[in-house]
């Protein structure tokens, strides 16, 4: 995944987790955060899968 920053994605996921756990976060916001976290997790999995495939080729 060209241009994908794994560390930044993980940091964003950590921030999302904190926001979702915050009792002051509204349901609409939680829904948006969950959708964004689904996107980030999918990107992270694809990135890690690509790294694994590259290392297996070595």
Q: What features would you describe in this structure?
A:
- The protein has 58 residues and is mainly α.
- It has one domain.
- Helix content is 81%, strand content 0%.
- Helix 1 runs antiparallel to helix 2.
- The protein starts with 5 loop residues before the first helix and ends with a helix.
Summarize the topology.
Blueprint: H1 6-21, H2 27-57
Helix pairs in contact: 1-2
Strand and helix order = HH
Note the total helix count. Answer: 2
The coarse silhouette is elongated
Terminal-residue CA separation: 19 Å
Work out the strand percent. Answer: under 5%
> How large is the radius of gyration?
14 Å
Whole-number mean pLDDT:
95
Q: Would you identify the regions where 5 or more consecutive residues have pLDDT less than 50?
A: none
User: What is the domain tally?
Assistant: 1
Throw out a few tags for this protein.
mainly alpha; 2 helices; 0% strand; 58 residues
Summarize the structure.
This protein is an all-alpha fold. It is built from two helices and no strands.
């Amino acid at each position: 995944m060209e241009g994908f920053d794994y560390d930044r994605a993980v940091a964003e996921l950590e921030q999302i987790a904190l926001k979702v756990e915050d009792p002051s976060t509204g349901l609409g916001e939680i829904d948006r955060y969950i959708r964004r976290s689904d996107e980030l997790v999918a990107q992270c999995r694809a990135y890690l899968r690509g790294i694994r495939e590259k290392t297996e080729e070595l």
